[in-house]
Amino acid sequence: MSSSTDSPTLTTETTQLSPQPDTETAKPTKKITLKSSDNQIFEVEESVAMEFATVKSFFEDSPSTDTVPLPNVTAKPLSQVIEFCKEQIKFKANPDEAQKKKYNAEFVTEKSDKDLVDMIPVANYLEIKDLLDVLNQAVADRIENKSVEYVRSFFGIDNDFTAEEEAALRREHAWAYEGVDED
Amino acid sequence: MTRTVRRKLAHSKEKNKEIVGSDSDNPDDGCLCSSTICDLDWTALPDDTAIQLFSYLNYRDRASLSATCQTFRLLGSSPCLWDSLDLRYHKFDITTAQLLSSRSKNLQKLRFLGGESADAIISLEARDLCEISGYFCRDITDATLSMIAARHVMLECLQLGPDVCERITSFAIRVIAICCPKLKRLQISGVKVVTGEAINALAKHCRQLVEVAFMESDSVDEFALGNLTSVQFLSLAGTKNLKWNSASCVWSKLPKLVGLDVSRTDITFSSVMRLFLSSQYLKVLVALNCPVFEAEVDNHMTYNHKGKILLTVFNDIFKAVGSLFVDITENESNMLSYWRKVKSTDRSMDAIATWIEWIFSHFLLRIAENNPKELDAFWIKQGAALLLDLLQSSQEDVQERAANSIATFVVIDDENATVDAQRAELVMQNGGIRLLLDLARSYREGLQSEAAKAIANLSVDSKVAKAVADIGGINILAGLARSVNRLVAEEAAGGLWNLSVGEEHKVVEIEASL
């Protein structure tokens, strides 16, 4: 039976803002520093950072850099995105489709609408295809069969149509709603 | 947050340390710069972020999102979102077609259901349309089909089936040949008589024709088929009254023929052998459920000859197909999945794999519907496993037919809705429930309804019902039961009903999840 002291290399720490040096592991992993637009510093393992295609190509272009500024990304969605990618690394090492699906499903279920919506542009910017897929699907599920009003408030959009335009839209889209029961 | 920056990062080879922060000096950014994400303004995001989200939505939800504001309205009509239309679950009439015509300029691919929808296709004014698939086309007429052909000269692929198209005659096939010189695939079920004149017109005008299927016909001119010199894949599954002696002589000379399907015909042993041995480029001969051939064949014959394979109901299909793609025979039971992995490396093998999947999905659906007694052993031995494999195909129509076949083949007595426990459990033991539940969660409604139907039928079996409940199937079905697509909702409700029968505790669970 293994005790907590001989923890295997695979269990990466979950702290994002102040990671402790991983003295137990055999080979020290390189850390990469990411800086969000609100000047928060994130130290992540290189393998995690390489999940972000944007960061990866940044490093390919300028290998000597040690801090990657992410001027379009704020801390909160970034920390959630990092959390997701850390898990994906584990699945890469130990492929388990069922577990991965389960994790991905839970990851989005526990997030608020705003969290999801905020993460999409970050995932898009950092080019994390898997996450983008999971997020888009989650948002699609949440607005499925919802009214236009609901969708507007979901994304925080203001209605900028005139009454005439709205009437025209209803006619134009009538076919798509054919057979839908109003509820 | 601009698309330009991201692209630059992804493609630029130049070293530029400021690259991430350089969005302000890109002249083509326009209004897309958003300062912070705290106050996320979706309408100010890069176009592709929002367009991507649109692509996850069905037509109803796209309409709702488009109706939120001007920006989304514009994005929602982006041509890339409308290059393919599946109107099988919508009332697709001339009015709908006219409303859609402004978005159909870029339309490449269309799926529709029934004769009335066929009449509406022309009103879409989608002149670049290159792929049309019609379902339930019993009442589509020669006049309609001829008009469709005449208005869509770019057509490359036309599929009408699997239901028989009784009213279509060789006249329409000739019109298609003359109007659509780019035609590559033509697959029609149930044209009563396919004349030599029609086939010769195809041979003369459609020089790129690669794949032809005249299935469930009463008569096809076998000599004329010999003139289709560009054809690589030919299927005559279920077609009657073919003169096999002359057919096998003529077809074995087809210079490019790679795949031939003569399943469910009265082909003789000697004709199978002639085709198999003397067709020069042939790789795959499919002769499933051919009673005359099967009565004569020696069970010990080999099915692999100089790189060609013969597929019958009593040889090991996985192994035979696998031998086409790899020399090694490891992991035999998963051979079909294996070709999906090797596919991308070799395009000609890719085409063969795609065709075999298509042929098998048709064959299995047909025998699931007719349920001939003599194929009981085939289902148990490999039919069920093949269906599960086809559920994972990359072709959506193949997946749909496989799910439909599962729903059908487990019911052995329609009148009393009797489900064969052995067949149902075969599907369950091989991971079929999980695969079906995944398909049921697909956003594609065709797959949703077929998968829900399959789960519903399988759940008549109490062991399967338990398995469905155990892996979260109730929630998935409950979600589908709320679908605005009535067909999906009905199948899902049927599934929930079957899950609840006889097990009181589950009724509570289902009510709670609704």
Structure description:
The complex is a heterodimer of chains A (183) and B (514). By secondary structure, chain A is mostly helical. Chain A has helices at residues 46-49, 53-61, 75-93, 97-109, 113-126, 129-142, 148-155, 163-177, and strands at residues 31-36, 41-45, 67-70. Chain B has 514 residues and is of the alpha/beta class. Chain B has a domain at 3-79. Chain B has 25 helices and 15 strands. An 11-stranded mixed sheet of chain B has the order 1-2-3-4-5-7-9-10-11-13-12, with helices on both faces. In chain B, strands 6-8 form a two-stranded parallel sheet. Chain B has a two-stranded antiparallel sheet with strand order 14-15. In chain B, strand 10, helix 12 (269-278) and strand 11 (284-286) form a beta-alpha-beta unit. The model of chain B is unreliable at 1-38 (pLDDT under 50). The chains are: A mainly alpha (183), B alpha/beta (514). The interface between A and B is large, with 58 and 59 residues.
Question: What descriptors fit this protein?
Answer:
heterodimer; A: 183 residues; mainly alpha; Potassium Channel Kv1.1, Chain A; three-stranded mixed sheet; 52% helix; 8% strand; elongated; B: alpha/beta; eleven-stranded mixed sheet; two-stranded parallel ribbon; 25 helices; SKP1-like protein (chain A); ligase (chain A)
Provide the fold topology.
The complex is a heterodimer of chains A (183) and B (514).
Chain A: E1 31-36, E2 41-45, H1 46-49, H2 53-61, E3 67-70, H3 75-93, H4 97-109, H5 113-126, H6 129-142, H7 148-155, H8 163-177
Parallel strand pairs in A: 1-3
Antiparallel strand pairs in A: 1-2
Chain B: H1 3-11, H2 47-54, H3 59-66, H4 70-76, E1 84-86, H5 94-100, E2 109-113, H6 115-120, E3 131-135, H7 142-151, E4 157-160, H8 170-179, E5 185-189, E6 193-194, H9 196-205, E7 211-215, E8 219-220, H10 222-225, E9 233-235, H11 244-251, E10 259-261, H12 269-278, E11 284-286, H13 291-296, E12 304-305, E13 308-311, H14 317-325, H15 335-342, H16 347-370, H17 376-390, H18 396-409, E14 411-413, E15 418-419, H19 421-429, H20 432-440, H21 445-458, H22 462-470, H23 473-481, H24 486-500, H25 504-513
Parallel strand pairs in B: 1-2, 2-3, 3-4, 4-5, 5-7, 6-8, 7-9, 9-10, 10-11, 11-13
Antiparallel strand pairs in B: 12-13, 14-15
Helix pairs in contact in B: 3-4, 7-8, 8-9, 11-12, 14-15, 16-17, 16-18, 17-18, 17-19, 18-21, 20-21, 21-24, 23-24
